[in-house]
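new request in #modeling-help
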Amino acid sequence: MGTCKIMSFSEAIFSFFLRIIDMVFPIFWFFLIIFLIFSCKKEIFTKIRNSAVLRMIILYFVMILIFRFVLLKSGYPYQGRYLHQLTILSVFPAAFGFCKSLDLIKKYIKRELTICFLLIVVIICAVKILIPPDNKEWLKLIPETIIAHSPSNEGKIFLISSIRDSRLSYYSNAEYHPFIKHNDSVGKITERAIYTKKIIDGKEKLVRENFGKGYNALCNAVKNWGGDNVFILLDSDKETIENQLKELGIKINFIHISDFKTHKGQKISLYQGEKDK
Amino acid sequence: MRKQEESYQNKGNINGNISNLIFSEKLFLKTQNRLLLLLGIFILALSLRIGRAMELERIEKDGTELILIAKNINESGFSGAFAENPRLPPLYILLILCGIKIGFSPEIVGIFISVVAGSLIIFPVYLIGKRLFSDIFPSLLAALFIAIYPNLARLSAEVLRDPLYQLLSISAICMIIEGISKQKKVFFALAGFFTAFAVATRNEGIEILIIFFIFLLIETLILISDKRNFYSSLARNTWIFAIFAITFISFALPFEISLKGTKSSWTIIDRRVYNFIMGFFQN
């Protein structure tokens, strides 16, 4: 959903270049470089001329490269995994480069030792695969806290959130409403509004709720959507929010539950609407 | 087949030498054990991906939409389905739905599909390698690299469409290459079949059809100066593309037709293509 900033041509080329470097695991770059060194010969053109298979693979590689560059330059929210088709293709030259490096070292080491070379590569990669992912404890704690504080009447739970991570609402079984400035910007709390995702003409769109802006919007949402079934997640700590509320002189109808920290160190505070009396 | 292998080894090319270097009888291999070795690589791929999946505490962001859609279809049928994200292709979601119907948790099914699909990629990669290198060792090595590639393995342990898409698209390319090498049209039909399922997994799958069309066009045009061969090549390549396209449409269209009446806006050709091209020319 949404778009990113459209880059200039040179910015896009630079960004694409960095993504390509990132696409290949460093150890494989070594084999790819060896492949490049040994394949930059005149014979390669004869090989391409004589092999339709090689032509197909090269065309596939080049076209995927072009398609992904167009996608990046068009401003579509881009993720590194879109280049994984090229990662798969890169194993062929890497395998050739590996063979060539074995060919180079076989004069200096025992025949059986060459297998160790392969084992080292396997172990390095296996370790990299099995290193546990970033500890995203907050993604577990926030939904658990929401579930623990949810009213027991099995009604709808609303999560108004400045943190745009669908997992928070998914694991807390809540309906997600972004609290943002507009489509792709969070902005200051006082400039934000509450949005609802709707399908209009087959496209998903964020439609602004008619609750006003900032803290007033949050208070109106709590009032209109029920009370204690409304949870609010803000990207600041309790102290900052309380100071801001004091400055603005606003009285709110939601109470602080807990503060959290993301794995990147960002402070988050969770609030719950006060029960409708 | 055996004769072919012997001829490869007799060629005495670089790959042949390396093949002898590691795959000597003393170490562990005879050519008939190749399948066993490939199976070993598959088990390694599977174990690494399962190991990674077991460390996961939370699924990927994009995975939540896929699961919610599958859950909603299971609970309230297809009429209101795809409301969470109407442009998502249906195949992966339908596979998760099948798992839910059998009685598994949607997260487990999603991860299972990714793990299996991500591990199976080694087979088309091995076959492509065989055609590219005319030797077994580098092709096995390419398959091994896929099995241990950190970026690919880590992604194959998530609830994401990517591993399934990678498997289907690389299988389509593999079938095209087999078709080119063996000159058998059944492979182009199979390529159309895999491309259809790739499109039903991720919209980018349509790229294979475009690339194959460009490839056949180039293969025809390079013979333009030789009129006799040009016309026969034109006829042959048109026929090949027709087989590919007919199979593709026969398998992709039922997905699109069956989604009519739901909230899905998915089509075989992504409607956003125009926006991408316009965005590309903006500064």
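bot summary: Residues 108 and 159 of chain B are 9 Å apart (CA to CA).
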